[in-house]
Amino acid sequence: MSNLDRQAALSVCGGRGFVVAQPVRELLSPRHVPLGESTEVRRLLPNLGRRMVGAWAFVDHYGPDDIADEPGMQVPPHPHMGLQTVSWLHEGEVLHRDSTGSLATIRPGELGLMTSGRAISHSEESPRSHARFLHGAQLWVALPEAHRGAEPRFEHHTALPRVTAPGLEATVILGALDGTVSPGTAYTPIVGADLALGAGADHRLPLEPDFEYAVLALSGEAHVDGVPVPRGSMLYLGCGRTELPLRASADAGLMLLGGEPFGEEIVMWWNFIGRTDEEIRQAREDWTTGSRFGEVKGYDGARLDAPEVPAARLRARGRTR
After folding, report:
1. Rounded distance between C-alpha atoms, residue 49 and residue 27, angstroms
2. Which pLDDT tens digit goes with each residue over 111-125?
3. Using 50, 70 and 90 to split pLDDT, how confident is the model at 17?
4. Terminal CA-to-CA distance of the chain, rounded, Å?
5. 306 SS3 class
6. Which partner from 25, 46, 121, 293 sits 20 to 30 angstroms from 245, CA to CA?
7. Which numeric CATH code is attached to 11-259?
C-alpha cells in the first residue's frame, strides 16, 4: 500500500536510544488519511508520539467499509525500497500486481508479503467483482542494513499457523509467537499476530521480554493489560513483559505487533525507507525518470507520481517525536 500523503515529511527514526525499556500503557490515536478513490485509513505508525515498534515502521487500519457500490481500494502503481509490506484482511479481497510479475488475490486470513529490497513497484486494487465489505491492515517492516539491497520478491501464504487457548485464536502472520513460526520470510526478530478473542475471553499471552510490543484494535473492544483499547487505536506496551493479559466481554479482533528494538536509524519518506537524505532523493529521481523500480503490467491506469521532497535536510530525531 502506498503512502498517498502529498505533504509527506522526511523523518529519521530507529535506534535503541528511544526504546521504552519497561512495560508501559501508552494509547495512540490514529490520523485519518484518504487512500485512493473511496478508502480512508487510520494511520497508527508513524504517530505523533511514536515512530516504530520493533522493525514495524508503518501501520494503516481501514474499514470495515461498505464498498458494494464503490470501486473500493484503488492504489495505482507506486515504488518501494528498503522495506517489506504486509497485507492482512479480515473482509474483502485485494488484487496485488508488482514489477517482478507477481499477480495474486489476497483474501482474509492470507498473508501477502512483499519484500522490496533495493527496488520494486506494485499496485493494489479491489477486484471489479468484490465482496461488500473491505476491512484490513497494511503494514511495513524496515529491512536491516544487511538485507535492504536484496532482490525484490513476493510471497503469498494461504495457510498460516495458529496458537489456540480457551477464548483465544492467534494467527501468526509474521515471525514467531509462543514457539509457533510463520512461513513468511522475516529479516529481524519480530512478531505479527492476529488475535481473535471470544466473548468472555480472559487469557495471558506469553511474550518475549526483549521485544517491544503494541496492540492494534481491529474490531470490538478488548482490555489489554487492563486498558480498554477502542477500535482503530493502538496501545504501545514497551519492553520487559513476559506475558500480556487480554480480556473481552464480547468478540473482539486485535493485532499484536512486536520485535527486537530496531537498532539502526532509518530515514522514511513517502514510500521509501533509506539511511540518508541523499538516498531518498535519488530514489524519488529514479521513480520519476522510470529507472530502477520496474513496471507493473496489467494495471488499468496511470502510475502514481511522487510528491516533491522538502527542501530542508534531515535531522535525526530518534524513534519518538
Report:
1. 10
2. 999 999 999 999 999
3. very low
4. 24
5. coil
6. 46
7. 2.60.120.10
> Can you tell me the distance from the alpha carbon of 86 to that of 110, in angstroms, rounded to the nearest whole number?
10
Tell me, what amino acid is at 210? D
CA distance 38 to 316: 35
User: Do 256 and 205 form a contact (C-beta atoms < 8 A)?
Assistant: yes
DSSP 17: G
Q: Is the pTM of this model over 0.70?
A: yes
> The sheet that has 133-142: what strands, in order across it?
31-35, 39-45, 56-66, 133-142, 83-91, 111-115, 153-157
d(CA 57, CA 289): 27
514467531: which residue's cell? 176
Omega before 64 within 30 of 0, i.e. cis: yes
The residues spanned by each domain of the chain are: 11-259
Q: For residue 135, give the DSSP letter.
A: E
Query: Where do we find the cell 519484500?
Result: 115
Q: How far apart are CA 67 and CA 164, in angstroms?
A: 32
Cβ pair 151, 100 in contact under 8 A: no
Q: Dihedral, CA atoms, 143, 145, 149, 153, nearest 10 degrees? A: -30
153-208: per-residue pLDDT in tens?
999 999 999 999 999 999 999 999 999 999 999 999 999 999 999 999 999 999 99
> How far is residue 50's CA from residue 246's CA, in Å, rounded to a whole number?
23
C-alpha grid cell for residue 123? 499496485
Query: Per DSSP, what are the bridge partners of residue 31?
Result: 43
